[in-house]
Write a sequence for this structure.
């Protein structure tokens, strides 16, 4: 189903609104809501939520880090 011009303009506006991006990021990463649930709460599509999460990463609103396994770091240091 093709999107209307109004829908596309609305999505573009939302994706440039930092408050919207932060709200989406908190709902997803902190509150644990699904993208579908957030879309329902925000009255937008799941695709808009997905794009907002990516945009939040791109703008460094969201930073994801992986805690290294201490043993891996230890072994890596031994091999140097």
């Amino acid at each position: 189903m093709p999107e209307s011009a109004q829908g596309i303009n609305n999505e573009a506006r939302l994706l440039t609104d930092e408050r919207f991006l932060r709200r989406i990021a908190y709902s997803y990463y902190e509150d644990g809501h699904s993208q579908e649930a957030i879309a329902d709460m925000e009255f937008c599509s799941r695709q808009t939520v997905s794009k907002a999460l990516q945009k939040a990463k791109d703008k460094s609103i969201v930073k994801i880090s992986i805690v290294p396994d201490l043993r891996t770091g230890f072994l890596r240091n031994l091999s140097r």
Remarks:
- The mean pLDDT is 89.
- The CA atoms of residues 15 and 51 lie 8 Å apart.
- The first helix runs from residue 5 to 14.
- Helices lie at 5-14, 18-30, 35-42, 46-58, 70-78.
